[in-house]
Task: inverse folding
């Protein structure tokens, strides 16, 4: 850690990991309800559990992004943060909003109230006051980060990261628009959801990945930054019009089946470029960095996002395929592997990299961390496979044969049991990661056993 | 080899280009959604209120509507059609209301839908909303009535 104010990142990472635990436990409960449908059906019905699962995920990923920005911006801009205090206030605001949202969901408070009640659109269920709080927090964050960058060194990494973070805030504004016409509602709902995860979040991911590869491999900055621009260009060129793959069946014009199919098929390209980028840099880089776990997570993020977002996305993105698979367990399979492979993994990567620096010590608990990597990745791969099989069967029985939804679901029980098992294993991996990250062993390794130049 | 600044300019210029195309197409899509694919005349206050109830109860976190939502409970974009609403709209509305009133089934091993204790007016409006949704031109999706 070169700059004192980078310390803000640690608070963000800690809260993010607490929410990660809540998210995966919520997912485990939801997976259990699939195999034991009467479980909690009075206390916390499935829809409430799912809101906790998805909202906790979204918030902790964003907290991880904010933390990553607070960590890497000072190093890139070569100056202290404009205001660490704003950083902490912003975190408090986000924690209050998150707790408020969770309490509102679980106890079903203020139902129907336009300001205090939940707004039941998928992923955007936060009550209006929480949404406004998120916008205020985002503005505080952007002000803080932008001021730091404006006064400091401007690099491709800061440019792309800032653009991504500004995009997150700007597209979130569409969550405030809730028209009575369901079709309009859906068109602009995707402005938040798609343009986040298949647009500006990719910018954030590419910037974090580039920063890590720069530090971990020692490859020349000029090469890394050229790659970054190429990757984010590919991401937006394909991803923006790729929004069309959500505009097939929701009351939108027919031309989207062509535009959506063509451009979203190309969305696999930037993810493939990230795989080539990360492996080439690690291969070419001469640096023998001591944080092997961080390198593993960085490579893992690029590979698993390629499979989850790229391959599993492509699998059902063509309109002629999607006509049958839309809204089945195929989507669930893709959603899980894509979010884990891309955004969970890049967050865990930067946390693995940054925490030893924030604690001012050599990398610690690396074996435990790497075991957690393999546990989480295998469990998520297994979950994705069984949901894909379930989805393929569901697509055939329901969409081709025309069997009714619940009759089909009754035949998928075995897959849901295997999914629950995979989920349980994943939770073990996640808790192991949190333990390895936040409970460093007491004895410090002697600093002289490593070359200080390498430990950057 | 392109230089870094060339890559940067291609990124900025190209992204702006594709965003502008996207915004233009969105404008047309917005017009199409209001005037062509949905029925402006029947989008009344009851439908709007029904949509609000749909949101207040977080229905989308179990069901899907036009294929979007959770995948835990049946698709509702065409539930009106599935309940025979094409031939007998009044019957389908009543069937939807009766279904809502009969939950939860309490059957062991069967997915449970909560009892939302809606008033008669709220049930009517929810049924109106589901009827209106069933009239959206969705490019013939879903492939069959099973949803």
Result:
């Amino acid at each position: 850690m070169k700059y004192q104010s980078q310390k803000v990142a640690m608070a963000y990472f800690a809260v993010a990991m607490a929410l990660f635990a809540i998210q995966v436990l919520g997912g485990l409960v939801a997976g259990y309800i699939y195999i034991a449908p009467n479980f909690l059906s009075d206390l916390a019905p499935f829809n409430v559990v799912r809101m906790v699962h998805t909202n906790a995920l979204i918030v902790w990923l964003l907290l991880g992004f904010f933390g990553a920005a607070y960590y890497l911006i000072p190093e890139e801009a070569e100056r202290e943060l404009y205001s660490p205090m704003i950083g902490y206030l912003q975190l408090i605001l986000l924690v209050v909003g998150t707790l408020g949202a969770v309490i509102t969901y679980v106890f079903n408070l203020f139902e129907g109230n336009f300001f205090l009640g939940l707004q039941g659109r998928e992923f955007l269920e936060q009550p209006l006051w929480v949404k406004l709080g998120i916008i205020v927090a985002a503005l505080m964050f952007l002000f803080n980060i932008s001021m730091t960058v404006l006064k400091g060194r401007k690099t491709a990494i800061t440019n792309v990261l800032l653009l991504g973070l500004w995009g997150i805030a700007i597209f979130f504004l569409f969550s405030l628009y809730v028209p009575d016409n369901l079709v309009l509602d859906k068109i602009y709902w995707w402005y938040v959801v798609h343009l986040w995860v298949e647009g500006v979040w990719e910018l954030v991911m590419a910037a974090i990945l580039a920063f890590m590869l720069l530090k971990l491999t020692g490859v020349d900055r000029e090469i890394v930054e050229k790659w970054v621009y190429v990757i984010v260009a590919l991401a937006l060129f394909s991803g923006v019009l790729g929004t069309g793959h959500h505009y097939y069946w929701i009351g939108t014009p027919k031309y989207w089946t062509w535009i959506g199919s063509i451009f979203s098929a190309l969305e696999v390209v930037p993810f493939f470029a990230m795989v080539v980028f990360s492996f080439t840099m690690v291969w070419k880089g001469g640096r023998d960095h001591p944080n092997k776990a961080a390198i593993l997570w960085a490579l893992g993020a690029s590979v698993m996002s390629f499979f989850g977002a790229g391959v599993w996305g492509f699998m059902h993105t063509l309109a002629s395929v999607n006509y049958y698979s839309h809204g089945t367990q195929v989507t669930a399979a893709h959603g899980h592997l894509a979010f884990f492979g891309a955004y969970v993994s890049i967050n865990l990567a930067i946390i693995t990299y940054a925490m030893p620096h924030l604690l001012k010590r050599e990398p610690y608990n690396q074996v435990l961390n790497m075991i957690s990597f393999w546990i989480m990745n295998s469990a998520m791969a297994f979950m994705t496979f069984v949901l894909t099989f379930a989805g393929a069967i569901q697509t055939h029985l329901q969409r081709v044969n025309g069997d009714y939804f619940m009759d089909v679901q009754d035949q998928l029980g075995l897959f849901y049991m295997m999914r629950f098992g995979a989920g349980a294993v994943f939770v073990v991996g996640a808790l192991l990661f949190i333990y390895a990250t936040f409970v460093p062993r007491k004895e410090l390794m002697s600093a002289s056993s490593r070359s200080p130049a390498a430990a950057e | 080899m392109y230089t870094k600044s060339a890559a940067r300019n291609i990124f900025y210029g190209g992204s702006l280009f594709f965003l502008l195309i996207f915004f233009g197409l969105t404008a047309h899509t917005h017009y199409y959604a209001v005037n062509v694919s949905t029925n402006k005349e029947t989008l009344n206050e009851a439908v709007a209120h029904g949509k609000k109830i749909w949101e207040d109860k977080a229905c989308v976190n179990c069901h899907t509507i036009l294929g979007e939502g959770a995948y835990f409970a049946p698709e509702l974009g065409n539930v009106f059609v599935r309940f025979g609403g094409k031939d007998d709209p009044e019957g389908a509305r009543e069937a939807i209301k009766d279904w809502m009133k009969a939950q939860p089934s309490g059957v062991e091993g069967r997915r449970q839908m909560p009892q939302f204790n809606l008033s008669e007016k709220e049930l009517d409006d929810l049924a109106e909303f589901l009827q209106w949704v069933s009239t959206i031109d969705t490019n013939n999706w879903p492939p069959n009535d099973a949803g």
About this structure: The mean pLDDT of chain B is 96. Strands of chain B lie at 64-65, 68-69. DSSP finds five helices and two strands in chain B.
